[in-house]
């Protein structure tokens, strides 16, 4: 799948918390995009602390204040700033924003990376067995089953061309609009964005009746495929 | 031709790994093959009991790994079958006493003189599991027809695949036809559908297996019960022979239903 990221604002989940990276581009547009993105994932971002990465960009005091204000509006706390521009570092210090060092690569980070933006997808032709966790920041398509004790955690949509008895979490970075589709959705627990659907006795879907799950009015709703 | 190293594992404890290892070793020996069984359940050894050799243990796998004796000194020969040997585990250590590389080296050495090396695993997915699979050419996964055992088997199959020893073949142990008929027990097809690996055999539940284990004479020494016939069929399949599965009962209903429910062997 294509590597190029369209957006100059990248939001990642790392082991140390949320990380927002601001790239090149016109300041107003960037702010506007950040505003939109944060609004989309409110339930997920609220109350979180974030590390802001601004790269080489030179940011004025006024701009930094604007940024902090925007974050505050979404109830996100600016924890640290990471920059390679001397001027920005000085600005940060003047406003008493803590500076972060670049993240050292940790051997454990490889275990669960959320490196990219939520625009790419992966296709896996395998069954996710008990104890296995398939994680990806974008969309996930699996041709195979998800066995009990197995899980898929995706920042985007999840499509399983098989039988699902494990746990699925779509829109894991706050996207309530994510979709889950499966040939046989027998999951005892389904999550979309911040919402959780628990079926106490485990679902007993009919074979040959694919279903989709999505969030409607703040709740996860499962509907047969093709019923619109 | 060098022998095959087969590790018998399950994840869950108590599903019949040790009993199966002992019985398959005997069945293979009765087919004229040279077999050595290895017990890697260090600290909780019981393969020696089931094979009737507990009183003759002088050296064990830890002694071999630590160089206190030669491998040949630790091997115990079966009294009835000259082609059958056991390398016992130690009872006074635990799984940390040997490393996977050491077990793999022992398996490699045994390959030369054996047609089959059967490695009995401990329960669990920690160090003991990795010791047991280290030298394996192939893995046999044992499960009973119960949800908890099937869940554990799935986990182990996933682990085996992730270290390149998968997917393995499946033995469904201790199936009870009367419970399957009543719908109180998973049937063979339910289990295979869940685990999606090749079926090596199905063994019906039989009290005689326990009686034999307590006597130290594995049931496979005779062929009169359904369980021992199942052991023998599995052994034959391990040698590459194609053996059809036996029906466990005549199920009423359509041909498809009868085929679905009536598989063992």
Q: How would you portray this structure in words?
A:
The complex is a heterodimer of chains A (228) and B (265). Chain A is an alpha/beta fold and 228 residues long. Chain A has helices spanning 27-40, 42-45, 61-73, 86-94, and strands at 9-14, 17-22, 49-55, 77-83, 121-124, 133-136, 139-142, 151-154, 158-164, 167-170, 180-185, 189-192, 195-198, 211-216, 219-224. The longest helix of chain A is centred in the first third of the chain and has 14 residues, at 27-40. Chain B is built from twelve helices and eight strands. The longest helix of chain B is centred in the middle third of the chain and has 16 residues, at 147-162. Chain B has helices at residues 17-30, 47-50, 61-65, 71-74, 100-111, 127-133, 147-162, 177-182, 188-195, 207-215, 226-238, 255-261, and strands at residues 4-9, 35-39, 76-77, 84-87, 116-120, 138-143, 169-175, 198-204. The model of chain B has no long low-confidence stretch (mean pLDDT 92). An eight-stranded mixed sheet of chain B has the order 3-4-2-5-1-6-7-8, with helices on both faces. By secondary structure, chain B is an alpha/beta fold. The chains are: A alpha/beta (228), B alpha/beta (265).
List the keywords.
heterodimer; A: 228 residues; alpha/beta; Alpha-Beta Plaits; Pectate Lyase C-like; disordered N terminus; B: 265 residues; Rossmann fold; 8-stranded mixed β-sheet
Chain-wise SSE layout:
The complex is a heterodimer of chains A (228) and B (265).
Chain A: E1 9-14, E2 17-22, H1 27-40, H2 42-45, E3 49-55, H3 61-73, E4 77-83, H4 86-94, E5 121-124, E6 133-136, E7 139-142, E8 151-154, E9 158-164, E10 167-170, E11 180-185, E12 189-192, E13 195-198, E14 211-216, E15 219-224
Helix pairs in contact in A: 1-3
Chain B: E1 4-9, H1 17-30, E2 35-39, H2 47-50, H3 61-65, H4 71-74, E3 76-77, E4 84-87, H5 100-111, E5 116-120, H6 127-133, E6 138-143, H7 147-162, E7 169-175, H8 177-182, H9 188-195, E8 198-204, H10 207-215, H11 226-238, H12 255-261
Helix pairs in contact in B: 1-11, 5-6
């Amino acid at each position: 799948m294509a590597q190029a990221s369209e957006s100059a604002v990248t939001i990642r989940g790392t082991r140390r918390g949320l990380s927002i990276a601001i790239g090149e581009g016109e300041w107003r547009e960037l702010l506007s995009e950040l505003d939109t993105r944060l609004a989309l994932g409110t339930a997920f971002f609220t109350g979180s602390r974030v590390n802001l990465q601004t790269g080489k960009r030179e940011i004025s005091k006024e701009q930094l204040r604007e940024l902090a204000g925007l974050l505050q509006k979404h109830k996100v706390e600016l924890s640290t700033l990471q920059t390679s521009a001397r001027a920005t570092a000085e600005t940060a210090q003047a406003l008493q924003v803590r500076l972060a060092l670049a993240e050292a690569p940790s051997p454990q980070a490889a275990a669960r990376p959320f490196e990219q933006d939520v625009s790419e997808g992966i296709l896996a032709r395998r069954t996710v067995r008990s104890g296995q966790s398939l994680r990806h920041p974008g969309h996930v398509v699996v041709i195979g089953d998800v066995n009990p004790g197995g899980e898929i955690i995706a920042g985007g949509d999840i499509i399983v061309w098989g039988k699902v008895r494990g746990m699925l979490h779509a829109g894991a970075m706050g996207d309530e609009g994510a979709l889950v589709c499966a040939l046989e959705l027998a999951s005892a627990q389904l999550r979309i964005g911040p919402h959780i659907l628990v079926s106490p006795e485990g679902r007993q879907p009919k074979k040959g009746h694919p279903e989709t799950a999505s969030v409607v009015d703040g709740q996860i709703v499962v509907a047969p495929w093709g019923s619109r | 031709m060098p022998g095959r190293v087969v590790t018998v594992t399950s994840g869950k404890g108590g599903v019949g790994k040790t009993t199966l290892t002992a019985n398959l070793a005997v069945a293979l020996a009765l087919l004229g093959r040279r077999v050595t069984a290895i017990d890697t359940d260090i600290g909780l050894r019981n393969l020696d009991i089931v094979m009737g050799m507990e009183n003759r243990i002088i050296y064990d796998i830890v002694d071999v790994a630590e160089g206190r004796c030669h491998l040949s000194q630790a091997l115990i020969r079966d009294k009835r079958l000259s082609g059958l040997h056991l390398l016992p585990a130690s009872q006074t250590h635990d799984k940390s006493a040997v490393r996977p590389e050491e077990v793999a080296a022992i398996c490699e050495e045994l390959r030369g003189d054996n047609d089959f090396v059967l490695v009995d695993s401990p329960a669990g997915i920690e160090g003991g599991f990795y010791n047991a699979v280290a030298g394996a050419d192939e893995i046999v996964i044992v499960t009973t027809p119960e949800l908890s055992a099937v869940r554990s088997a799935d986990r182990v199959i996933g682990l085996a695949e992730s270290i390149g020893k998968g997917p393995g073949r499946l033995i469904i142990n201790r199936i009870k036809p009367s419970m399957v008929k009543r719908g109180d027990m998973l049937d063979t097809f339910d289990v295979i559908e869940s685990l999606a690996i090749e079926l090596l055999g199905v063994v019906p539940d039989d009290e005689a297996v326990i009686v034999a284990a307590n006597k130290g004479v594995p049931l496979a020494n005779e062929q009169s019960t359904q369980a021992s016939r199942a052991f023998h069929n599995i052994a034959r399949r391990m040698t590459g022979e194609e053996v059809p599965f036996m029906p466990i009962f005549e199920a009423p209903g359509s041909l498809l239903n009868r085929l679905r429910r009536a598989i063992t062997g």
